[in-house]
Design brief:
Layout lengths: L8 E6 L3 H13 L5 E6 L4 E4 L5 E3 H13 L6
């Protein structure tokens, strides 16, 4: 089942992880429309929450962030 993502999409990531930080920097540089907000935290992995409070974790959260940054696709 697909749902529409409401922006902004807040992405929570492990600020101490070099791998997470590299992914976030790529997203930050690409997000020219301002659909994403980033929050570094001490928890491992990546999570996302949209403006309606829906949450995703792991690869699904990362997919939502990449869609927002690259083409604005809103269905997930």
């Amino acid at each position: 089942m697909s749902s529409t993502i409401s922006y902004p999409l807040v992405v929570f990531y492990d600020g101490a992880s070099p791998e997470c930080t590299r992914k976030i920097e790529a997203l930050r540089n690409r997000d020219t429309a301002g659909r994403l907000q980033f929050v570094g935290c001490a928890s491992p992995g990546i999570r996302a929450r949209d403006a309606q409070g829906r949450q995703w974790t792991g690869l699904v959260a990362l997919e939502a962030a990449y869609r927002a940054a690259w083409d604005g696709e809103t269905l997930l």
